Q: What sequence folds into this?
């Protein structure tokens, strides 16, 4: 039951945001009483924290599997990007604002995932890409890693990219294209264009 609660909570938080989903909403969605819900989680804040941890633990496992089974650095990136594009397709940007304003411990989980796991894997991907000749030798790995981390988080900035005008998938797809074309050698660009033209094929880039 605990795993079922976490799964349903994640789906609702991602679709509607956190603040818009009450414990009453969750208990109704799950078909259980609020009393039963509170047997597993003392309050909404503890549920949000555990749901956030569960989500990022799963993302780490998926990320590591992709990296460990695909030695080509461009393949790694594009498989990860396709996974992320599916994730953000139904993502409510208010979730991030809700974490920052109302659930700081859960926000710290997100920051930890970005600042450690994503940073380390981005750094290693850049180094591997340079070693294999797909990425430019003259890029500053630490700076490019930091730029990517900040740009990726900026995708959800609704002041810059209002959700009624741009989908998250659409904005993220543009970021991917710019990032790869900025770091790739001619060899890398050729590989990208010949083998991965279908990246984000269900999203418009206009």
A:
């Amino acid at each position: 039951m605990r795993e079922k609660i976490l799964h349903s909570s994640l789906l609702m938080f991602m679709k509607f945001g956190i603040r818009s989903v009450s414990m009453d909403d969750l208990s109704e969605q799950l078909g259980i009483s609020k009393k039963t819900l509170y047997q597993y989680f003392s309050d909404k804040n503890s549920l949000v924290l555990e749901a956030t941890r569960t989500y990022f633990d799963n993302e780490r496992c998926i990320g590591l599997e992709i990296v460990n089974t695909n030695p080509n650095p461009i393949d790694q990136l594009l498989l990860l990007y396709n996974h992320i594009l599916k994730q953000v397709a139904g993502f409510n940007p208010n979730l991030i604002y809700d974490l920052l304003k109302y659930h700081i411990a859960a926000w710290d989980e997100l920051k930890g995932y970005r600042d450690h796991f994503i940073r380390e894997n981005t750094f290693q991907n850049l180094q591997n890409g340079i070693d294999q000749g797909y990425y430019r030798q003259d890029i500053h790995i630490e700076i490019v890693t930091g730029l990517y981390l900040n740009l990726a988080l900026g995708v959800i900035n609704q002041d810059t990219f209002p959700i009624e005008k741009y989908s998250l998938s659409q904005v993220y797809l543009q970021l991917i294209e710019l990032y790869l074309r900025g770091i790739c050698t001619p060899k890398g660009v050729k590989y990208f264009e010949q083998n991965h033209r279908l990246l984000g094929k269900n999203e418009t880039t206009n």
Q: What stands out?
A: Confidence is low (pLDDT under 50) at residues 202-206.
